[in-house]
């Protein structure tokens, strides 16, 4: 329950504080281009769905991740521990995406819409009416999972390695301070963000694709990947590369500091 409470609370703070960076990244990656998608204006458009889903997302991920680690760590060796961390992170992402994907669909369409009548509620209802619950609100589920699993498989074992290495090498096996854990997390997150940017671009394009592409079945992961590559090459596949790294590394730092503090000092009073 500490992980559930702390993960949800820390996730909420980070998502709201860094939401403008997410908006800018989405607009850079969109089909219509940064300026036509809104540029630097209205960077908090779509904040509603993010606020509503932020707490359950963070809570569910860390509840799943830490629970699997807790129950299985005594049964694995130090050499197989990274595999356990990969499995725990993968399970956490699959569960979290059940909430994340509908929120992402609505949020990203709101972030890139220039029609003032396109509220988040209207976008959600239109997606449901035009394409149905699964095809509309869960469009891009596969591409989101495909992005999140490699991200977590890279980030969390790297995070655990950096924490253990730093503790043993520089701290004489003394537990790390919150800021030290956060520094390891920011470094691990930036590496994972850099390597998975093409998958993030494909996910964004699929969620934002117009109805014509849906009808022609041109929104598959492979077909969208090849379309972006044909149009803009490697540069297109790494659109938003810098801002994504900054967003995730900074967000990861704040998140892990808050989560560690909340688990250690605050949540014990409840």
TrEMBL record:
The yes or no answer to whether the keyword Transcription regulation is present is no
Q: How does it sit in the membrane?
A: Multi-pass membrane protein
Query: What Pfam families does UniProt report for this protein, alphabetically?
Result: Mito_carr
* Keyword Chloroplast on entry: no
Any single Gene Ontology cellular-component annotation: mitochondrial inner membrane
UniProt-listed InterPro entries: MCP (IPR002067), MCP_dom_sf (IPR023395), MCP_transmembrane (IPR018108)
Q: Where are the Solcar repeats?
A: 1-71, 80-165, 176-265
Quote the subcellular location field of this record: Mitochondrion inner membrane
What superkingdom heads the lineage? Eukaryota
Q: Which UniProt keywords apply?
A: Membrane, Mitochondrion, Mitochondrion inner membrane, Repeat, Transmembrane, Transmembrane helix, Transport
Where are the membrane-spanning stretches? 236-262
The UniProt entry, under PANTHER family, shows: S-ADENOSYLMETHIONINE MITOCHONDRIAL CARRIER PROTEIN
- Tell me its family: Belongs to the mitochondrial carrier (TC 2.A.29) family.
Q: What name appears for this protein in its UniProt entry?
A: Uncharacterized protein
